[in-house]
Amino acid sequence: MVVTWKYPEQSLERILARGNFSLGAGGLVGLLVALGAVTLLLAGVLAWQGFWPVLLIAVIQIVLVTRILIKAWERAWVAEQIEVRPDRILVTQQKHKNKKRVELETAWAVVEMLRPEVAWYAPRLQLRSGSTKLELGAFLTVEEKRQLANCLKSAIRKHSALEGAPNF
Q1: Are residues 116 and 146 in the same domain?
Q2: Which domain covers residue 32, as residue numbers?
């Protein structure tokens, strides 16, 4: 999900990119408990009839599904906030409680969609200014990456020293 805010009086534009996962913590726990209960109930009935290996497989399945759903849920807490100012771009990348802040010069900033190294992978979105390179939106879908790239290009274009420069 990509959301933008424009503050014309401050020459500031904010862009927020977040992962999409609509299930809250309580919903996730409820889902995992329900899946576990149904799986163990069915496996218990089969184990009672002598098919005890099914119970082991059910436990392994519950552990794997729980791990996968928790990883997907964690992606909902990944966010990137980008502030485009006339003189600099502030990027705050947050994953859970870990925050990383990067500052780039707006005048020399370039937004690039890089082709993936492997054909079926998604393209990468990179923000570059001078020798500083930063990958953005790794958790976004391809369409959301394109939307983020367009928002960034639009916000940077007003302050760019590269606008109108000849391409060599």
Answers
A1: yes
A2: 26-75
